[in-house]
Amino acid sequence: MFSKILIANRGEIACRVMRTARRLGIRTVAVYSDADASAMHVREADEAVHIGPSPVSESYLQSENIIRAALTTGAQAIHPGYGFLSENPDFVEAVEAAGLVFIGPSAAAIRAMGLKDAAKALMEKAKVPVVPGYHGDMQEPGFLAAKANEIGYPVLIKARAGGGGKGMRKVDEAKQFSAALASCRSEARSSFGDSHVLIEKYVANPRHIEVQVFGDSHGNVVHLYERDCSLQRRHQKVIEEAPAPGMTAEMREAMTSAAVKAAKAINYANAGTIEFIVDGSGPLRPDGFWFMEMNTRLQVEHPVTEEVTGLDLVEWQLRVAAGEPLPLKQDEVRLNGHAFEARLYAEDVPKGFLPATGTLHHLALDESARNDTGVAEGDTITPFYDPMIAKVITRGETRETALMELAAALRHTRIAGTVTNRAFLEALCANEEFSSGKVDTGLIERQLDKLTAPTNPTPETAALAALIASFGDDITRHCVSPGEKNAAPYAAAHNIAVEPFAALGGFALWGGRSQFADILLNDELKTIRVQKQEYGKYRVDLPAGAQEIMLRSMTCSISRSNSHPVTSGHADFEMDSGRHKAWFARWHGKLAVFADDGTFEFATPDPLEASEGEAGGAGKILAPMPGLVKKVFAAAGDEVEKGTPILVLEAMKMEHTLAAPRDGKLSEVMVAEGDQVEDGTLLAAMEEE
């Protein structure tokens, strides 16, 4: 076994590999870019080496720097994680040429499965079923359009390199083909440096079921059962589970046998995943699945397989790479229970699931679940990398139990400082189709409006937010638990929290003492009057009407995030509607309340500071996230209709088209192709109506 390994990755997966390595007594070396200088994976490693500037192309894709770091620190092997260089055969050969071990498959195996067209031809030869389509070398647009007509619409255009939904477009009719092909090729070239595509028949009501396989250098190959990854948004996996709902013994035998056959066809060693597209229009059947692709690495969703088999897949990777045989034979691998994994991202769901950035001023992951993460409170989600915050993983004896535990874990997760998809994931857990196991890759699109319906804070949440905002920066003065020395006897006897000197604080010559709080409620800045009455009782004059709130207890703690003090705590309060509990976090200009009705962030501007105002309006096009201006379609003076594409912004390796918000004339376009812009940048403006 190795004594020291280097992990050529970052974030969650780097921390995940370190956890197993530490348990096995293996020292770890981290690599990091400028943006990751203080990242969790750097903090948790035994050693860390700087490899370049923040952009991926200048750091985590610099194979020479990574290999040099391994040699300099005395590492014996390199674990690639997933993404970056994990499926780059040239990197594998460079690692081995340097006298190091690559913890993954051979370069030959990666090449065999790296291009989808070649892989499908290989699978056909190995008698593994493949989806009907065109997988050849001819790439002339007219020829591909003709092939699409032969196959029959709808078809799927797919980049032959890469994965993750990038360079993939569904085309429903012939007149859409040309534009979809151009967009697909552009995204594929940007993401993978390869614009070659293939055309496949689109399977109606498809399910995405994959089989985890493992091989060693002694010729052994086993499967570790299947995972269902059908719950997707724009071909990106959202929630995965194992085993697949509705799986029959006959279907499982057919799929797992095909997966093992595929791995043996390329003499595969180490962790890999055979992905199948499955006909989900009815019950699963042995003749209703087709090979889609093979991922020649550890998958993001590998924890659900670990939870239902009781195995550590990273440990298996290390042992196989060290030359050991597989730890178990096929009949020794057991399937037990059910597991889910939800991908918790910093992303703006109302803006079309756009990746978001921000500092995690407050981060509390539910301890009852397994949380694989690469960030901690105070860390920043930057625009340079995947915005994953954590993978929330739960297991139960039944699917129903595991799903209930996932919903509870998401409900108890508290994050402030960036928008997230937490509420969306929780809505998915409650979705009737998904909870009953009726899942396919189109479920989210069909029910998108229902799953992403915005919610406003209840009067209870709004009242608590206004009350906390009125306390100002000196909020800890109000955080006194029942029975503390400074609490008035009445308050202690009635289980009511009060601030020090509360016995005097409620007295005023003409009624209760009043304070005012500026707070953003439902996108409108309001000045709320809060009147102190007696012993923890307040009147809050909300726009919808006055609310009386009895603060029974409020606990606080203070931390620091990016040099700003962050006060977080828990409030137990009572209103006419009953007894309520909520968590909160407050930092400079912001307040987050985590209540039963959701997580809400409120702006609490300091009245002594100048207002910056809103950057946008009905006739302004703002950057919804940091990114690169890829294309500009319009110029100042152009007459445009609502929905007319104005420009394309590339962010997180995805292209996002920004369109005119209404009919009118463009007064100005402020950016050019190639410009890098920040979130909220004014990109174009229309003349006033």
Task: Give the key terms.
8-stranded antiparallel sheet; Rossmann fold; 689 residues; 19 helices; alpha+beta; Dna Ligase, domain 1; 5 domains; D-amino Acid Aminotransferase, Chain A, domain 1
3D architecture notes:
The structure is a single chain. The chain is of the alpha+beta class and 689 residues long. The protein folds into five domains: 100 residues, Rossmann fold (3-Layer(aba) Sandwich); 70 residues, ATP-grasp fold, A domain (Dna Ligase, domain 1); 246 residues, ATP-grasp fold, B domain (D-amino Acid Aminotransferase, Chain A, domain 1), CATH 3.30.470; 145 residues; 67 residues, OB fold (Dihydrolipoamide Acetyltransferase, E2P). The protein is 25% helix and 34% strand. It is built from 19 helices and 39 strands. Strands 14-13-10-11-12-15-22-20 form an eight-stranded antiparallel beta sheet. Strands 24-25-26-27-28-29-30-31 form an eight-stranded antiparallel beta sheet. A five-stranded parallel beta sheet has the order 3-2-1-4-5. Strand 25 and strand 26 form a beta hairpin. Helix 4 packs antiparallel against helix 5 and helix 12 runs antiparallel to helix 13. The longest helix has 17 residues. It starts with a strand and ends with a strand. The relative contact order is 0.08. About 6% of the residues have low confidence.
